[in-house]
Amino acid sequence: MSLARLLGWSAVAAIFCFMLSCSALAKDNPSYTQWGRAIHVGPNDQVGDVTCFGCSIYVRGQVAGDATVFGGSIVLEDQAQVAGDVTGFGGGIQLGSGVKVTGDVTVFGGSIGRDPTAIIGGDVTSLAGKGWFALMVVTPLIVIGLLVALIVWLIQRARQTEVPVAA
Fold it and tell me: CA-based, 20 to 30 A from 5: which of 29, 127, 128, 161?
């Protein structure tokens, strides 16, 4: 099996394991993970963790865990409650009237809009601007690229046969 094929299957296995871990259920409340499709938590809904990749999360009810979005926004409105952390990567977070977040509110590469009546129990961290998001995406890609280049170089070096020098 070639190295490229082995690395490809390893990446597929890693992504599959990650997706399984993201979609695990909370103790009493279902957790939701979406790819490219928004998550809506209604006023009478109670859910566990909510995670969204390339989409947005809209909450009017209760989230018993964390709300996390990658490449989208989180909108908490109308007395919404989040028992965990609210985290956005590459998108904004809006906290409406009467919202209560027990944990931290963190945004990388976006902004936080907060109504004066919104309550946050933890810390608020905002690294606004698209530069932070680009740095978060580009840095791991550079590291992975350098690792692949090192592996290719080591394999090529191991394959080289010594050529005797004519005397």
Answer: 161
